[in-house]
Amino acid sequence: EEFEERVTEATLSNGLKVILVERHDAPVAAFVNWVDVGSVNEVPGITGISHLFEHMAFKGTTVVGTTDAEAEAAALEKMDEIYAEIEKARRDGDEERLAELELAFKEAQDEASEYVVANEFGQIIEREGGQGLNAFTNSDATVYFFSLPSNKVELWAWLESNRYYDGVLRQFYKERDVVMEERRRSTESQPIGRLVEQFIATSFTAHPYGQPVVGHMSDLKAISREDAEAYFRKHYIPDNMTIVIVGDIDPAETIETLEAYFGRLPAAEVPDPVVTVEPEVKAERIVRLTDPGQPWYLVGYPIPAITDPDYQALMAISQILSGGRTSRLTKRLVTDEKIAFFVGAFPGLPGNKYPSQMIFYATTAAGHTNAEVATAMDEEITRLKTEPVSEEELERVKTKMRANLVRQVDSDFGLALQLAEYQTKTGDWRNLFLYIDAIQQLTPEDIQRVANEYFDNQRRTVGEIVTESQEGV
């Protein structure tokens, strides 16, 4: 209630949600634009497009990032026409025509590049004292953020709104190549990356959570600039955006500025929500990767979304089992038995806006096997189901979770990010604080009930990396 006094909420004329928090400790402000679109909104054929568009949002507008917007637009249109012909020639199997078109496309691409002012968007922000310019895409969202001196609110509003009002998808195909290389580095060349991608795909056979955020390589190769523009027009609409600003701001002036700039974005119909529900799992599924590197073990159990009351107990369980050196899995597997180098647990892989998974994982120590890790982990999970945690242990976990929240919202950026996430995923930023209150009310009986409700080995997915010497163990 005390915090709420410093919060101002508004909805712009086009439906865009705004949350402002006054913090006058320093003359700076953190800006977060949380867009309610992620890989969960994609369909086969364009997987990876949310992440790809995130890259494109830094390329500028007709004013920022070009020396001649009109000439560049003509060059980009020429590229689009040639690319459409390339796709047709590829479908027809006309190799001779394809070679000619690819040469023409490269020439058109080089011509368009002549008008590009590289990284001008970022240079403007840096020149004006901005910091932390970045973005991320996950299964549930695409988020853009940076900080500026608090007297630069209008500059931020102009720059950020123009990304969506007047954005230009320049250097699209070069950036598409960058994303494909990112996929090679993060997934295809990394054993854990390959395992986790297959693990998630195996865990979700119907729900789009099974799609990789970075996209499938065949889809990335086929996505066109026109595909990205159509995806942008569908999802980057005011009703899909939540702006949170935290810092040394005047709320009334800020809302007026946001209306002037973001109010230009045309209102549009909200895209249909994801309606696919993952079928009930009735059999254990196993994903095993043989690799000469480090053994690794992973297990996931189906759980509800962040809005379910049981989610708070699942968060507490993750702390009981892996929240620091004295947590149960860390103490047993890492400190005492030394069969793992590291262990972890958390709810929400790959997301938590929709029903997802509770994950437990471990890096198996040299001279030990995944089977040893799996046995110890299963025993600790079973112990949660059969023995109530003590009041003292649960109270320590509650204290730690409360302290973690304080740390997360201590910085302007951390607070802005948390408020934007809870507003978007749960419908009200206040749930950030109400959920921590709910955690304080948890009892040992709640923990035991939730463990029995969700940790069923007949419904889980198991993944592991085994070395050639351990294969068949």
What features would you describe in this structure?
The structure is a single chain. By secondary structure, the protein is α+β, with helices and mostly antiparallel strands. 47% of the residues lie in helices and 16% in strands. The chain has 17 helices and eleven strands. The strands form two sheets. The protein has a six-stranded mixed beta sheet, sandwiched between helices. The protein has a five-stranded mixed beta sheet with strand order 7-11-8-10-9, sandwiched between helices. The chain is globular, with a radius of gyration of 25 Å. The model has no long low-confidence stretch (mean pLDDT 96).
Keywords:
473 residues, alpha+beta, six-stranded mixed β-sheet, five-stranded mixed β-sheet, 17 helices, 47% helix
Describe the secondary structure blueprint for this structure.
Layout (H helix, E strand, L loop, with lengths): L6 E5 L5 E6 L5 E8 L13 H8 L12 H24 L2 H19 L6 H8 L3 E7 L4 E8 L3 H13 L6 H17 L2 H13 L13 H6 L2 H11 L5 E7 L3 H12 L22 E6 L5 E8 L7 H12 L5 H9 L3 E8 L8 E9 L5 H17 L4 H18 L3 H15 L4 H10 L3 H11 L6 E6 L7
Parallel strand pairs: 2-6, 7-11
Antiparallel strand pairs: 1-2, 3-5, 3-6, 4-5, 8-10, 8-11, 9-10
Helix pairs in contact: 1-6, 1-9, 2-3, 5-10, 11-17, 12-13, 13-17
Short account of what is shown:
47% of the residues lie in helices and 16% in strands. It has 473 residues and is an alpha+beta fold.
| Topology order in helix (H) and strand (E) letters | EEEHHHHEEHHHHHEHEEHHEEHHHHHE
The description of the largest β-sheet is: 6 strands, mixed
CA-CA gap between termini: 56 Å
> What percentage of residues falls in helices of 4 or more residues?
40-55%
The total beta strand count reads: 11
Rough shape? globular
Report the uncertain regions.
none
What structural class do helix, strand and pairing data support? alpha+beta
| Adjacency order of strands in the biggest sheet | 1-2-6-3-5-4
Q: Determine Rg (CA atoms, Å).
A: 25 Å
Assess the beta-strand content as a share of residues.
Answer: 15-25%
Total DSSP helices:
17
Mean of residue pLDDT values = 96
